[in-house]
């Protein structure tokens, strides 16, 4: 076993501030189950004073991960958001009287979760999808002369029916049907069009529609926002917006899209915020 | 932090090492204080040390069913025995430059094979295992050829206790003229081992796994097996392993071997009973836990569990604090803690791979100890799960994760 400091052991065996913070208004996550370490940091920040009034955590990992998570909550409680945002992984390690080198990544997870929580509070997207201001939204669908691999007509028609599309519907109309808000929000954007075939768009829409129950089961949702070339923009909402497992599910959606259409696509999530 | 002094500690990490038997320690003592001569010396002190070696050689030969005591070469432990066997097999068969081994061998074999592959141009076939840790026999057959110098497959796995069918595996190797070595470090003293029935050419063993001292092992080298020493120098071990013998340690190993042979039949049955009770109790008290390794064919003393959605290290730390010694199925690899190569080779789902804990018993384990572990372990798992973002009151909290990766046991 690792040679942990007494402070690490203390914070592992009697973690402070463990559990769900029901009235959190800033949540940040880091790590993954597959990686063996994960942290969900929940903060209640006073919106006027920007003071962190309460901090709690849920943590999956070994002794050092749980100790780092707990130490982090102790470090940020009572601090201003500004002061907290200056905390570094080294501060967490110092608070715990050091960590074995193999375990230093736990402090980085702590700092990442904190940065994500602060970003969430400030209304920033912590892991921003590629934002290219010049890149416009899709306005009309241009069907390329020869799609490299289109679904057979019968299959395409079936896919379109399943997605609730009427024959001849454009992507814009399809999105508007499934998600009127998204279509309205982006209706004003204009610019050159990167074409995507109608059948492809229908297939993508169908896949996302089919996958919705998976997200809804956990009181979340996924909506198709747009398709630009090989980028598929979706909106995550509800609990999925802050769930660290969502990225895994999204990877599954992306994989299905790529397998169905036979070429690479990137699924880019944006998170709905109140 | 110190252990609460209230209850005596419970040692369930016997696959890592064991307590030295009192009788073994007693046998060693005079070789430090009275009969401390060099076994090669021509005086009474040396003769007494040499007598200790002879007795030990006899006891070890008997424990593994060797035909002759001359087939036992003492080493500093299992790692040296393994290295000696593999290197000798390559050195004596110049035309054969391939090794067949498995993906779940001990690092003493795997790291050696990696180095031979990287620096000495040896081709290594690493045979996979199935989800229960059993060797993929078809892949094994396919890897064999007359280019193979040596097959090295473990008798029992140190993490899961899974037993490989050594006898049949050796026969297949011999069909292609390859030598057969088995790393039996976890098997010798814990389960009946008969080198002649199994038809192995070389076998590695280690005394500290069966209540002998650390730093003592042996290589069984079947008579007439071509050989080259790893360590050259003095004439010890008939020129097969140079260096002054660790006479006290070897004497202790011999005593431990005698005890293991004498207690084997009764011990294995009793230990298996305790292990099965422990296993059943944990499966009953803890949801979402799976037993790793083939339950029908494994060491009687080993229980390897994978707890879904909890990290093994946390469990082991909390057990340690409660006075219970166990070990995780994780190893530290390149700055991060990863599930062990054995757990990865078995394809354990990632939801459980980090939650592997090994409990390994010995003949010193008691019923009361098992009962206490059954009181202490389930709440530890529940406490850690309560801290996890992936766990809710009702069980795993994994939105969107395919149910296949979280099979109910």
Strand-helix topology:
The complex is a heterodimer of chains A (274) and B (409).
Chain A: H1 6-13, E1 26-32, E2 37-45, E3 52-60, H2 63-76, H3 81-85, H4 89-95, H5 105-122, H6 153-162, H7 171-178, H8 180-186, H9 198-216, E4 220-228, E5 231-238, H10 246-261, E6 266-271
Parallel strand pairs in A: 5-6
Antiparallel strand pairs in A: 1-2, 2-3, 4-5
Chain B: E1 10-11, H1 22-33, H2 44-64, E2 72-75, H3 78-91, E3 98-102, H4 107-120, E4 123-127, H5 137-143, E5 148-152, H6 166-175, E6 179-183, H7 195-198, E7 202-206, E8 217-221, H8 247-285, E9 289-291, E10 302-307, H9 312-321, E11 324-325, E12 327-328, E13 330-333, E14 336-339, H10 341-345, H11 350-353, E15 356-360, H12 367-387, E16 391-392, E17 395-396
Parallel strand pairs in B: 1-11, 3-4, 3-5, 5-6, 6-7
Antiparallel strand pairs in B: 2-8, 7-8, 9-10, 10-15, 12-15, 13-14, 16-17
Task: Walk me through the structure.
- With 274 residues, chain A is of the alpha+beta class.
- Chain A has two domains: 6-122, Sufe protein. Chain: A, CATH 3.90.1010.10; 153-271, GMP Synthetase, Chain A, domain 3.
- Chain A has ten helices and six strands, in the order H-E-E-E-H-H-H-H-H-H-H-H-E-E-H-E.
- In chain A, helix 9 runs antiparallel to helix 10 (246-261).
- Chain A is elongated, with a radius of gyration of 22 Å.
- The termini of chain A are far apart.
- With 409 residues, chain B is an alpha/beta fold.
- Helices cover 39% and strands 16% of the residues of chain B.
- Chain B contains twelve helices and 17 strands.
- In chain B, helix 2 (44-64) packs parallel to helix 8.
- Chain B is globular.
- The relative contact order of chain B is 0.15.
- The model of chain B is unreliable at 401-409 (pLDDT under 50).
- Classes of the chains: A alpha+beta (274), B alpha/beta (409).
- Chain A binds chain B through residues 1-2, 6, 9-10, 12-13, 15, 18-19, 29, 33-40, 58-63, 65-66, 101-103, 105, 214-215, 217-218, 220, 239-240, 243-246, 248-249, 252, and chain B through 1, 309-314, 316-318, 320-321, 330, 332, 335-339, 350-351, 353-354, 386-390, 398-402.
- Chain A: Pfam families: NifU, NifU_N.
